Please model this.
Amino acid sequence: MPIIEKIQSHKTKLILVTCIAQILILLSLIGVVNLILVAGQTAMVEMTGYDPYDPLRGRYLSLQLKERYVPLDIPENDYNDYQKFYVVLEKSEGSLVYDHFSYATVKKPDNQLYIVCPGYISYDYDRETKEHTKSLRISPNLNTYYLNEQTAKELDKIVWSNDTTMYISLKILNGNYAIDGLIVNGQKY
Amino acid sequence: MEKISNEQFGQFIAQLRKEHNLTQRELAQQLSISDKAVSKWERGISLPDISILLPLSQILGVTTTEILSAKRLDQSTQLTVTEIDGLVSAVVNLNKKEPKISNNERLLLVFALLAVVFIGGGVLSFFAYNWEIFSRGAKAFVALLPLVTCQTLLIIKTKQNASQIWIQSLCLAVGMFFITALGLIYQAYQLSFSLNSMLVITYMLMLPIIYIFDAYPLAILSLGGVLFTGFQFAASPYLPILIIPYYIYKYNRVDRHNFLTFMLVCWSIMLPPLISGEYGLWASIMILFMWAIQEREPTCKNFIRIFIYASAFALTFVDYGDYSEMFSMLEPFTGLLTFIPCIYLFVRNRPKTTVLHEKLDFFALTTLLCTILFCTTAFFVGTPISLAIMEEVLNIIMSSWLTIIILALSIAKITLGMKSDNYDSARRYITVLNSFVLLKVLSSNASLLLKAATFIGVGIALLATNYIISKRSKQTCQ
Model:
């Protein structure tokens, strides 16, 4: 009997397994995010953004890190194109929360708060020292924040203003992170 | 007398055919019948006509009694007249019970499926509005509810051996509501994954349903999603391979597989690095559109012809990448180079008919192609008017002319179809009209709620069309 006909002869069992697998995958997404939100440490990173639209997921605020380049602390050529980097967060002087990325590395840092994310290595030429310096353009998945249409339109106008400050609130657990909220000019969305 | 079922009968014929190293096509040719008929016997959907039993038994090297009993009999077995009578009447009774799927039922299924897609899309957009009154947990619950409902219904209807309209619509609904749930969970939990990753996950999780239920419409929808991603992921160029066993299965059973063929052809076009996913998609849209408005059988010959038109259209928009220098000198004439042969082919293949329907098709396609030819050529050759103004003017001409052609042709065809009881044509153009309204609303700056309402409205309109046409066809039969 061909394999597809064999599959079809166990319809009821297989459809049950498939449906359960589908639900489990969706629930695991929710579970992972909830775990990070409950057990993770808080960080707030400054962002910039604009308001685009996605036909399947509605209106959202597209975000970008204000400081996308971080110093790179790795030995020469100790990385590849698909490398995941550990990007370490630090607190500014007087700050109660982690508020900026300090450096990136390929070795897991000890006793420090970090996120794991992809990045692109950028080379700059320093005319004074006549040396090439390396930095990392980090690309964490923090580029969308979903809002309803009305709020998204209002925020779209606000975020273009030069004196707007926008922070994204994150919860971080073992390098994994979840978005907890968006704070624009002191107001949480 | 032991009762035989359609399935036993089919399995016995398939076994004998394989023993004689015959394909379904070869057996059908020897019996001067269609290969679809053989496929239907073997799947237990129908039984052979009584007049075919003798030649069938001769070809398969068994007796008619063995065919009727659906098993090999001992040479010494002597059946009584009563037993033979019993076998013949059992087959005649099975033939009476044979579920015949009429063209009307097939169309009912197509419309029911389209309605599911649109209502699903509407529900999706409705929740994508992101209601602030709901908490994250409530949004997740709302996201999962339609999916779990559809899954439960699918399990129940499978146990009840419900009709294919139910099963196929529910399979499609599971696909729609899975991607809805995924989208809403992404949104509610602020996950930053792309639409492309959602489509790939949906494709992977829909594969078991496609295989279990022979869910052809779901296969098209899921594979379409992967092709839409334009291979943004390292693995996605290879993912369509997973559907090939299903395609072979459909092909061997001589089931409908035209759209799957078409999508796999698109896949093979998208693979070469010269043509990106975006242009493959363009070609797909044009092929589908031309296919939709040409009332011809989707034969291989027609497919190739339509494919040439669409590829020609897609080529005019292709970024030639590394070969741009080579092609730059040809660029001003791209429109002429692609559309003159295209129109020549089209005119040469024009339907030599007096039927108004076919004349309308020909008129609409010719005017459409001529408009595109004019605009593309005018744009590339250039005029003293600045490029921005030129582009604006051409856009207006194209969009208004296209609107007029589609609206006029659809309304004319729907009216003609209803008057002449050609419901196939009427339904086809109701779909074209609805799709056009959808595209217009989707490409506008209308709010998400209005878009959601349009989606649901179109879904309901399709169901209403099903209802009205079914009622009218019943009245006609009476």
Summary: Confidence is low (pLDDT under 50) at residues 97-101, 273-277, 312-330 of chain B. The first helix of chain B runs from residue 6 to 19. The CA atoms of residues 391 and 413 of chain B lie 32 Å apart.
